[in-house]
């Protein structure tokens, strides 16, 4: 964060832990949050708790439904972005979300992450193009890997 502040860089990092003795939530997260706040860094801080999903007799689509509830977080982690409070980027995972997005598109939005199975109609595509929003399709491997499990 200090180097980014000094030279205008765009470095990212992810800190992972098994959270033994609650060190991540109670110590590490709080320390990083305080440094960002005190130094006034332009930074985004997220805390994710993951859990093991045991493979049993359930079908792949039952796992997929659970995992896709967290696809926003997966996109944020992979791309080093933060959707929360960021008017320059958006994400849509359903046709309904796409409709809401195109009806309320903001002037600041520059990039849209869209589910691989979402297809804008002509009007929606025209609105997105008119606003100069770049579309990034969420990679198929998010979904394919779930089906192979």
Secondary-structure-derived class:
mainly alpha
N- and C-termini, Cα separation: 38 Å
The helix-strand sequence is: HHHHEHEHEH
Rounded Rg:
18 Å
Biggest beta sheet attributes: 3 strands, parallel
Q: Numbering strands along the chain, what is their spatial order in the largest sheet?
A: 1-2-3
Number of domains: 2
| Silhouette | flat
Give me the count of strands. Answer: 3
Mean pLDDT: 83
Q: Approximately how much beta-strand content do the residues carry?
A: 5-15%
Work out the helicity level. Answer: 40-55%
> What are the low-pLDDT stretches, counting only 5+ consecutive residues below 50?
none
Number of helices: 7
Describe the fold and architecture:
The protein has 149 residues and is mainly alpha-helical. It folds into two domains: 1-49, no CATH class; 54-149, no CATH class. It is built from seven helices and three strands, in the order ααααβαβαβα. It has a three-stranded parallel beta sheet with strand order 1-2-3. Strand 2, helix 6 and strand 3 form a beta-alpha-beta unit. Helix 3 (60-68) packs antiparallel against helix 7. The model has no long low-confidence stretch (mean pLDDT 83).
């Amino acid at each position: 964060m200090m180097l980014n502040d000094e030279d205008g860089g765009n470095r990212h990092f992810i800190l992972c832990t098994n959270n033994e003795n609650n060190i991540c939530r109670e110590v590490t997260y709080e320390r990083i949050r305080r440094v960002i706040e005190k130094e006034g860094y332009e930074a985004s801080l997220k805390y994710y708790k993951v859990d093991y999903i045991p493979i049993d007799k359930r079908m792949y689509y039952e796992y997929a439904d659970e995992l896709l509830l967290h696809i926003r977080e997966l996109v944020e982690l992979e791309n080093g972005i933060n959707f929360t409070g960021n008017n320059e980027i958006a994400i849509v995972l359903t046709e309904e979300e796409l409709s809401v997005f195109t009806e309320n598109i903001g002037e600041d939005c520059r990039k849209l992450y869209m589910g691989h199975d979402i297809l804008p109609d002509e009007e929606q595509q025209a609105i997105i193009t008119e606003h100069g929003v770049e579309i990034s399709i969420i990679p198929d491997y998010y979904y394919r890997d779930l089906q192979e499990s």
